[in-house]
Structures are given as structure tokens and as C-alpha cells.
Amino acid sequence: MSVGAAIRRVTPPDLVARKGGAPLVCLTAYTTPVARLVDAQCDVILVGDSVGMVLHGLPSTLGVTLDMMVLHGQAVMRGSDRALVVVDLPFGAYESGPEQAFEAAVRILRETGAGAVKLEGGAYMAPTIAFLVARGVPVMAHVGLTPQSVNVFGGYKVQGRGDDGDRIRADARAVADAGAFAVVLEKVPDGLASIITADLWVPTIGIGASADCDGQILVIDDMLGLFTDFRPRFVRRYAELGAAAAAAVAAYADDVRARRFPGPDHVFPDETGA
Ligand code: KIV
Description:
single chain; binds 3-methyl-2-oxobutanoic acid
């Protein structure tokens, strides 16, 4: 068996080695074409359970299933060959104990070929993370605002203001101690994210956190202007693809209604007709 490959994917240890170095570029992707689009730029592609809200129209991430994560994980693996692909463990697939989490993680790694899983939760998840890592499953942790707990938080609110900062700091330490190779910090105050980043020997990846984090992740549909149900304040829109697509569909509808739909030999002036 040949072990050498022309292109090697980023690995969890590669990310740990980048701690404090050049910022980690991370984005979500859920489909093959989008994975192709982002692979060359990204260190990490996250197949997030945000897929439920962004692609499936669900009101939260709670309705996402393991089958959905496997399907989207497979699609993203087919569209990438460089970035580390991390797949979210969905709500209900890991919280009841380390064994349940291990079964779900094995299904994801085996059926998608992804390099790691991500799970939400702080200190109480540390035993599960240690169990997974000891059995060969690399884990990215996620603390602060953990969207699967939206009903406990009563909304998608900033976590860790004031005295509550100690709780988030302890959560981040606990998951890193347990063996997580990176920690997503979602919607925690700037100062706290900086302190946690300095505390940990593994990279922090911020989403609405601080520029002091070791990298940033955004939901791709948010930064491309494709998901417009709501717009987190911290998201910069790098394009307005939703508006551009709506205008294109309207132009198409105008053409069809005006019977401007040509035959097989027509070549539009700006196209080769290939
Ligand atoms: O599901 C997701 O997309 C995520 C990121 C927002 C971190 O967990």
C-alpha cells in the first residue's frame, strides 16, 4: 500500500501546531459545489448542523438528524481534498453518554471519511470528549453560545458576560484538557475570548467572539448573503448572492413570459454555446 499522496489534507495536529500563528480560515459547507469553492482557501470546512436552518428551512438546529449529517458530510468530502472536514454531531446523537457519542462519531467518520467531529458543550462534555479521543475520534469542541441549547438560553444571546465569564472560561479549559484539538467560541465577549485564547494550548476559533482568537468560522450562507432569515451583527456580508440570484430568476421569468427561449443552435453574445 502506498501511503504517499500528492495532496494531504490538513489534520487536527496541523491545526494544534498553528496555535498562535497565522489565523485559521474556517467556513461551513454542506454540498459538493460549495466545498469545491472553499477548499483551496480554508483550513477547516465544517459541515455544521446549521445545515438544518440554512438548507432545510428548519426553525433551529434541533431537528437535524445523524442521517442528514452523514449525507452532507459525504457531499463535502467529495468536493474537497485539502481542508480538514469536521462534521457536527447533531442534537440527541451524543448527549446521553460517551458510548452513544462514540457510536454516532464512528458512523460519521466511517461513512463520510471526514477527519473529525464537533460537539457542543462545556465541562459536562469533557468525559465524553476524553472517551472519544482515547478511541481515535478527533473532537472539535464548541462552547459559549451553543445553538443546540437555544431553548435553555431563551434565544441566541451572547454568553459569558460579567461573572458568567468564569463559567465559559472553565468550560473551555475542561474541553481542551479532555483532548479537544480546537475550541469554537461562539458569541462570547471580546475580552473573555482573548483570555480563553491565551489560556489554551489548542486553537480557539471564534464566531462572533474576538479577533484575538486563533481563527474565525462563519456560516457560508450568511457571509454570501444567501441566508437572510436573520443576520447576526458580527457577520460581514462579502457578497449579496441572494439578491443577485433573485434578480436572475426574475430576468429569466421575464424572458420566458416574453417567449425569449431560443432553440438549440442559439449562442448568446457573452457565451461560447458549449
Ligand atoms: O453549525 C454550525 O454551522 C456551527 C458553526 C456556526 C460554528 O456550529
